[in-house]
Design goal:
- This protein is of the alpha/beta class and 200 residues long.
- It has a single domain, classed as 3-Layer(aba) Sandwich (Rossmann fold), CATH 3.40.50.170.
- It has six helices and seven strands, in the order E-H-E-H-E-H-E-H-E-H-E-E-H.
- The chain has a seven-stranded mixed β-sheet, covered by helices on one side.
- Helix 1 links the parallel strand 1 and strand 2.
- The radius of gyration is 16 Å and the shape is globular.
- The structure holds 5-O-phosphono-beta-D-ribofuranosylamine.
- 5-O-phosphono-beta-D-ribofuranosylamine (GRF) binds next to helix 1 and helix 6.
């Protein structure tokens, strides 16, 4: 049984998609055992609590400096004996010590078809603003393994989503979440839990 930890910062709709997929059996051989947010007000924490999953807030603001936070966060995740860490809208930079401790076992959902619209400054709504600015007709989402470079590790899954006339960043973000993110992340977790990516 794969022990999964989910790191969040916001509304938690990707976390909810994972929790629902475990409940419905779309994800097998895995359980979400821990949720961490850097934002005490993140609705994602409420979603975890409602699902009976251990959840806590751990923020850089609680520490004298970023190095102390990075060490404390990494230590906590090791303590939870996690097999897989899922970044679901987690807006904190992942430190090298955490990547080393969980080499190949941290995945991230990014709301574009990497290598488009990714890297420094590309997160959340900004990604969709840039896609609309560029005038792409197709965007989507990507699940990739996290390494030391931003949005750079091996790509596990991608799904294309149409850009429609009149789309605003908000409308496009919602369509990418509904038609791609909420499908890809559970599929990636189920694939890892059942050895379909050859990394068990
Ligand atoms: C979404 O914008 C998603 O594209 C990105 O971070 C945000 C997470 O949203 N990965 P939620 O907290 O899962 O609702």
């Amino acid at each position: 049984m794969l022990r999964v930890g989910v790191l969040v910062s916001g509304g938690g709709t990707n976390l909810q998609a994972i929790l629902d997929a475990v409940k419905s059996g779309k994800i097998t051989n895995a359980e979400v055992v821990y949720v961490m947010s850097n934002n005490a007000d993140a609705y994602a924490l409420k979603r975890a609590e409602k699902a009976g999953v251990e959840a806590e807030c751990m923020s850089p603001k609680q520490f004298p400096d970023r190095a102390a936070f990075n060490t404390a966060m990494t230590r906590r995740l090791i303590e939870k004996k996690l097999d897989l860490i899922v970044l679901a809208g987690f807006l904190v930079t992942i430190p090298p010590e955490m990547i080393q401790a969980f080499r190949g076992r941290i995945i991230n959902i990014h709301p574009s078809l990497i290598p488009s619209f990714c890297g420094k400054g590309y997160y959340g709504l900004k990604v969709h603003e840039k896609a609309l600015e560029r005038g792409v007709k197709v965007t989507g989402a990507t699940v990739h393994v996290v390494d030391e470079d931003l949005d750079h590790g091996p790509i596990l899954l991608q799904k294309a989503v149409e850009v429609l006339p009149g789309d605003t960043p908000e409308i496009l973000q919602r369509r990418v979440m509904e038609q791609a993110e909420w499908i890809l992340l559970p599929a990636a977790i189920d694939g890892i839990a059942n050895g379909r990516f050859g990394q068990n």
